Amino acid sequence: MSTNEQIIRVFGQLRDLRLQQGQGHRANAYIKAITGIRKYPKQIQSGAEARAIPGIGESLASKIDEIIRTGTVTELGPSRPQEDVERERVLNLFMTISGVGPATAAKWYEAGYRTLEEIPASAATREQRISLQYQNEFNQRIPRAEIQLFEQILHQYLDPLGIQFEIAGSYRRGRPDSGDIDIVAIDKPGVDVIGTIIQCPVFDRDLYLAHGTKKYRGVGHVGPIHRRIDIELTQPSEYPFAITYLTGPDSFNKKMRAHAAQYGLSLDEKGLHGPRGELYPATSERNLFEILGLQYLTPEERDKY
Ligand code: 8DG
Ligand code: MG
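ok -> C-alpha cells follow
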C-alpha cells in the first residue's frame, strides 16, 4: 500500500469514527481531505507538504506525519472489533450492487470507499456501474399493474412474430409487487429471440448489464422508474423445467430438488437427470409434478413453501 493509500485508509477510519460519534462536520473534513489526496499527483512525504492539498490544515497535517511514522494514529488504538462490524456492514452494502461479490466489496473497502456514492465509475464493471447508477430505482418494488403493462406491450410486439414468452418470478406467483421482471422465452430456429425481444420499446437497450445468447440482464421502463428485466432463453424441451425453476420461490425449488434427490434424480432449470445422466423429459409444468409424484401446485400455492 502506498503512503497516500495508507493515509486515505486511516482518514477513512477516522471519518467513520466521527460519524459514529455524531460529529458530522468533523467527518466531512476527512471526506474533503480524502478527495484532495486522491487528486494529489505525488506520494506525500510529510504533513507540511500535504498542507498544499485543499482541506488539509495543521491538525490533519500532524496526523499525516503520525501515519507516515507509525502507519496509523494513536486515537484509533489497536484494531478494534467495531472495525470488523463496520467492515461487514460496508461489505454487505456493496454486495447489494448487482455483480459485486465478496472480492470486489473487499477491494473497494480496502481502497477506502465506505458509501456507494464514493465508488468511482472507473473502479466498476459495466454491470456494477449501471446498478450503482440506478440503485435507487432498482431498489423500488414494481407494482403488479406496471408489470401487467410491460406484459401487454411485449405481447403486442412478440405475438405477431410467433415469439413465446412468460413472465415468471414473483409476478407469476401473483405477488402484489416484484423486485424485478423475470422473462422466460422459448427459442425459435433461425430467429435471434433475445435480440428481437429487446427491440420492444419497453427496453432501454443501452443500459444492459449483460447480453449473452441465452441470457440477457437488462433495464427497461414503462413509467418514470427504470426496472430490472432478465430474459432467459430456453429450448422448447427445457421450457417446463425453466418455467418451474424461475417461478420459484427459491425455498420451493429447494424442496422440489430434495424430493427428486430421494429418487436419485437431479433436477435443475434444464431438466430432470438420472444417476447415469439419462434425461427424463416433461411435456409441461404439470407433467413435471406428475413425474415426480407430486400433487400439482399453482404458482400462488408455491409461495407457502
Ligand atoms: P422478486 O423478484 O420479487 O424479488 O422475487 P422472485 O422473482 O421470486 O426472485 P428472483 O430473484 O427474481 O428470482 C426468480 C426465481 O429464480 C426465484 O423465484 C427462484 C429462482 N431462483 C432460485 N435460486 C435463485 C438464486 O440463487 N438467485 C436468483 N436470482 N433466483 C433464484 O431458485
Ligand atoms: Mg423476480
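Residues 54 and 172 are 55 Å apart (CA to CA).
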